[in-house]
Structures are given as C-alpha cells and as structure tokens.
Amino acid sequence: MISFFVIELFSCMLDTVRWQPWEYMYLSVFLVFIINFHRPKNTIVLMHLLLVSMYFFSGLHKLNRGFLSSVWMNTILEDFIGFSRETVLKYKLFFVGLVIPFCEILLGGLLIFSKNKKRVSCFLILIHLSILMILGPFGLGYNSIVWFWNLAIIFILLITYHKPFEINNIKPFLFNHFYWLILWFLMPVLSFFGRWYQYFSFNLYSGKGKQMYICVSSK
How far apart, in Å, are the Cα atoms of 62 and each of 92, 101, 103, 183, 195? Predict the structure, then answer.
C-alpha cells in the first residue's frame, strides 16, 4: 500500500491535470488506511469525516448559476430527460435544480448529527445510483471515469455505515488527527476565495470550472 501510494503520488506530480477529484479522494483513503493500518476504528471514523466534508462542500460549490445552467438545465433536463428550453422556462424548472445542492448539504450535515447514519447513507447511495443512471452507459454515456468513482463511493458508504459507531473521547481523537480536519474542512473554505485548489475542495460538477474554447477556421 505504501509503495502504491508513493508511486501514484509521484505519477501525479508529473502533470497537474492528473490531480482530479477522484484521484485526491483515492489518495486520501489510501493514506488513511496506511496511517491507521492497525487501528481500523480510526479508519472508519476518518472515512466518515471525509464523506461529511465531500458532500457538504460539494453542495456549497453547486450553489451558483453555472451549475443550474450547465449541469441541471443542459445535462439533466434537456439532454437526459429531453425537455426543450421552452418547457424549462414555461414551467419555471430552472431554479428547481437548487434542490440538489441543498440535499447534499443537508445529508452531509445529517451524517454528523443523525444517530441513524446508515439511513442517511442509503439516501446518499440513491443519489449515486441516480448519477450512474444519468451519466452511465444506459443514460448519456458521459465521462466513464466517474462511473467507477460513483461505484467506489457507494462501496465506501456501505463499508463505513454498515455498523453503528461512536467517537469515544472525541476531543483527543480530533486533536490527534487535526491534519485531516485542516485538509478536509479548513482548506476547502479557502477555495471559495481562490486560495486552494478547487478539485481538493470537492468542487464536483458545480459548473464553476474555467472553460477554454479553441476555435479554428474551416481550413
């Protein structure tokens, strides 16, 4: 596991394009397992915190008009469901897309405060199944990389929440693992001010990414 982590880390250093959000999540998971190899309870709790951060900040990043336009309206309503632009405007479906980020934020919060985390994880699994339905081979067939990423997250949700768990001595635990809190909860806040890499802040399908269009002549 250590060899894999080191090789993957150096591989990503060759090109910034390789620092994709799923790569960041996988490396975080591997590093958590390596550090806590003989402390499986710590691994479960840290996986829990990683998921909380991922859903919470993913939802926050989607609270913008770019998500509603490029993801909600263009991809889901028009390309997947087949609604025309006129239908979207006529029935005022544009801002209905805000339900998605608010659900992510809510479920991320419930993972922290709810006693029945397994039930919350079931709703999250349904979200990932919906994503697979939309982007998968039986839907739009778009971006096959994220198909396996969503399957991996479903697997992590099943493993993390299949049994109830509690954080004993929460203050010492958080103190001993403060670096994960900084990485997963403090640094993503800086991304909203352009001070931290967006893909390390769970900025996922938010419509905020910069786009470059290359136009060439017919020749």
Answer: 19, 6, 11, 20, 18
Phi and psi based region of residue 141 (left: phi greater than 0; alpha: psi -120 to 50; beta: remaining)? left
Distance CA 219, CA 213 (A): 17
What are the angstrom distances between the C-alpha of 70 and each of 22, 34, 75? 21, 39, 6
Cβ density class 24-62: b for 16+ within 10 Å, e for less: bbebbbbbbeeebeeeeebbbbbbbbbbbbbbbbbbbbb
**Over its length of 219 residues, how does the chain's per-residue pLDDT go in tens digits?**
999 999 999 999 999 889 999 999 999 999 999 999 999 999 999 999 999 999 999 999 999 999 999 999 999 999 999 999 999 988 899 999 999 999 999 999 999 999 899 999 999 999 999 999 999 999 999 888 899 999 999 999 999 999 888 777 888 898 999 999 999 999 999 999 989 998 899 998 898 877 788 888 877
Do 46 and 36 meet the contact criterion of CB atoms below 8 Å apart? yes
Q: How far apart are CA 44 and CA 50, in angstroms?
A: 10
